[in-house]
Design brief:
Blueprint: H1 3-15, E1 20-24, H2 30-41, E2 47-51, H3 65-78, E3 82-87, E4 90-93, E5 97-100, E6 105-108
Parallel strand pairs: 1-2, 2-3
Antiparallel strand pairs: 3-4, 5-6
Helix pairs in contact: 1-2
C-alpha cells in the first residue's frame, strides 16, 4: 500500500454520495491507511470503516474476515462521521489502534 493508492481512496470517498463506506484492507498497513484517511478527510460528514482478517482465507480454513466485515457493516451504521477500524469485535478510532502480531489481534495503543 502506497500513499498514492491511499490518495486514490481519499478521492473515491470524497466523490461518492455514500455517507457510510467500508474498506477491506490488509492488516499489515491498515492502521497507516486509517490515519492517512483521517488526516485528509478532516471534517468530512462521512464515516469510513476499515476492516480485514488476521486469519487469511486459504482453501477452507476458518478466517475471521467474515465476522470482521459483519461487525464493520453494523458499526458503520451507527458511528459518527470519521475514520475507524473494526477488528476482533472492537471498534477503534483512526490513530488509536495497534496490531499485536503476538496475540494476532488489534489493541488500543495506550
Amino acid at each position: 500500500m502506497t500513499d498514492d493508492i491511499r490518495g486514490q481512496i481519499v478521492q473515491s470517498i470524497e466523490k461518492t454520495e455514500s455517507k457510510r463506506i467500508i474498506i477491506t484492507h490488509g492488516t499489515s498497513t491498515l492502521t497507516n491507511t486509517a490515519e492517512f484517511l483521517s488526516e485528509r478527510l478532516g471534517a468530512s460528514d462521512k464515516t469510513a470503516v476499515l476492516t480485514g482478517a488476521m486469519i487469511p482465507l486459504k482453501e477452507f480454513a476458518m478466517s475471521d474476515g467474515g465476522f470482521n466485515l459483519g461487525h464493520a457493516v453494523c458499526a458503520a451504521q451507527t458511528l459518527e462521521s470519521g475514520v475507524y477500524i473494526c477488528m476482533n469485535a472492537q471498534t477503534f478510532k483512526a490513530g488509536e489502534a495497534v496490531k499485536d502480531v503476538q496475540q494476532a489481534r488489534f489493541l488500543n495503543k495506550s
